[in-house]
Amino acid sequence: MKRLVIVSNRVALPGIAQPGGLAVALQGALEETGGLWFGWSGNIDPNDSGRLHDEVSGNIRYVTVDLSKRDHDDYYNGFANRTLWPLLHFRVDLVDYSRETYAGYRRVNALFAEKLAPLLREDDLIWVHDYHLIPMAKLLRELGVRSRIGFFLHVPMPSSDLLAALPQHARLFEGLSSYDLIGFQTERDLERFQDYVRLFGRGRVIEHGVLETQRGRRLRAGAFPISIDTARIAQQAASSAARPGVKRLAASLSGRSLAIGADRLDYSKGLPERFRAFERFLKRHHEHRGKLTFLQIAPVSRGEVAEYQHLRHELEQLAGHINGVHAEPDWTPVRYVNRNYPHPLLTGYYRLARIGLVTPLRDGMNLVAKEFVAAQAQEDPGVLVLSTFAGAARELDSALLVNPYDLDGVADALSTALSMPLEERRERWEAMMALLRAHDITAWRRSYLAALREG
Ligand SMILES: O=P(O)(O)OC[C@H]1O[C@H](O[C@H]2O[C@H](CO)[C@@H](O)[C@H](O)[C@H]2O)[C@H](O)[C@@H](O)[C@@H]1O
Ligand SMILES: O=c1ccn([C@@H]2O[C@H](COP(=O)(O)OP(=O)(O)O)[C@@H](O)[C@H]2O)c(=O)[nH]1
Questions:
Q1: Which residues are in coiled coils (predicted)?
Q2: What angle do CA 99, 185, 237 make, to 5 degrees?
Q3: Percent of residues, the chain, with pLDDT higher than 90
């Protein structure tokens, strides 16, 4: 069997908890097959980029690279997260147009390719992940790598008119044509990419999922919705009630219902809108006042980027405002926590909750939505309130689907969720759980790799 080589900016190094679906999902994907995982070490070296770290844990070898402060600023804080991230999440208003950070992005991609190439074997199957590393296949090909190379985009693919706002779009997206297979989260992402190829990419869509470049090279593209380790999450959640942290949360609710959100502190997750919708719920639905506590877990993410700092400030103000106006001496409506919780605890929190509140403005998939469903108790499941703009909404269509901009709609969905009869909660949950059992993280990995091998 060919060795699997995963290349991603974020690597889930053993013993280090990472919020973020890519690290969680790829860890799950690699555990069964083993292989090599290559990417950034998470270290910032004051002087120089390129120091390598090599460690083995179980059947996975991790090789990671340190970055200098300048490279990290230009590549990760800069072009990846101030240019591509907002662009790919439809936020052209937030895009930073800087040639300097683009040069840093190319520099770090070239460094990764140069460090990775000597580690590769001829028959490796190489799987590159996400917007940080779009040029990787082209750079590896230039270094003589002939293996099959796949790419998976974890974030949305916006409409081609938005992509065209990026001055470097032609050169950047032309780089995708060196891959053998390009994977997207949903069919809609794939369709928007095919539009881009037709309208701006100078390529041809031979048939759905089969593309041809201007130079006549054929490659495939497909939708492969990422998922979770459903059985593990369900099992973790089922045995969580005895955990001291879960018991403490349960006791602190004093019999009230819990609504939970768990998201990186990111503007794509729609957190200010969610807080406002919760306040709208308190105003519109007096009958539920004092009966629901909203816990928002929001570990700080990309904290050196200005837009993320502004968001943190805004949420602190909003949480303070809502509690100031609506709290009672014995009830705090919003509990807002900037900490990252490990899965065994988080899944226990999900299971305690009557409502999972997942309302991103745009999200490639959103694994929290899937985890919330998998963590519920069959005999008394909670209700998922899910944004229609999350990739997960395509599959989890038995959730209460909402438009996150429509504050009244989200407020009413909270009320509907609280009043929903047990029978309806079970019906909706069974439908979503059946899907998650069939389409788990293993199924995702197998279907993508089968397509990559096939060619
Ligand atoms: O690595 P960070 O900068 O700390 O950010 C964490 C990850 O965020 C994004 O995750 C995406 O991937 C998830 C799994 O496919 C998906 O469910 C979610 O919708 C996406 O936002 C980012 O794309 C990753 O590269 C980051 O590692
Ligand atoms: O305190 C936290 C908050 C989040 N997560 C995990 O981080 C991932 C977030 O993935 P998602 O796809 O929802 O969004 P992303 O952060 O990748 O955009 C999920 O597996 C969460 O369980 C976590 O482990 N601890």
A1: none
A2: 115
A3: 94
Establish whether 440 is a catalytic residue: no
Place of tokens 């899910």: 386
Domain 4-227+441-454 belongs in CATH node 3.40.50.620: no
CATH 3.40.50.2000 residue spans of the chain? 4-227+441-454, 230-438
Per residue in 145-182, pLDDT (tens digit) is 999 999 999 999 999 999 999 999 999 999 999 999 99
Q: Which of 72, 129, 154, 439 is catalytic?
A: 154
CA distances from 429 to 34, 166, 328, 384, 402 (A): 33, 41, 33, 9, 17
pLDDT value for 31:
86
- With a cut of 70, which residues of the chain have pLDDT below it? 19
Instruction: Give the span between the Cα atoms of 384 and 259, in whole angstroms.
Output: 10
Is 298 in contact with 360 (CB distance < 8 Å)?
no
Spell out which residues line ligand 1, taking CB within 6 angstroms.
10, 20-23, 25, 130, 154-155, 226, 301-302, 363-367
Choose, from 74, 363, 412, 440, the residue flagged as catalytic: 363
Distance 385 CA to ligand 1 centre (A): 21
- Residue in 322, 256, 254 with CA at minimum distance from that of residue 288: 256
The separation between CA 52 and the C-alpha centre of its own chain, rounded to angstroms, equals 27
Asked about 180 being catalytic, the answer comes back as: no
Report which ligand 2 atom has the smallest distance to the Cα of 297. 1
Distance 341 CA to ligand 2 centre (A): 9
Fill in the amino acid letter for 76.
Answer: Y
Q: What is the ipTM of this complex?
A: 0.99
Best residue among 18, 22, 24, 384 to mutate for probing ligand 2, ranked by most atoms within 8 Å of CB: 24
Asked whether the CA dihedral 265, 267, 269, 271 is positive or negative, the reply is positive
Nearest residue CA, atom 5 of ligand 1?
Answer: 20
pLDDT of residue 28: 79
Cα–Cα dist 270/375, whole Å? 23
Centroid of ligand 1 to alpha carbon of 22 (angstroms): 5
Q: What is the pLDDT of residue 32?
A: 84
Give the domain 230-438 fold: Rossmann fold (3.40.50)
Distance of CA 222 from the midpoint of ligand 1 (Å): 19
Length of the chain: 455
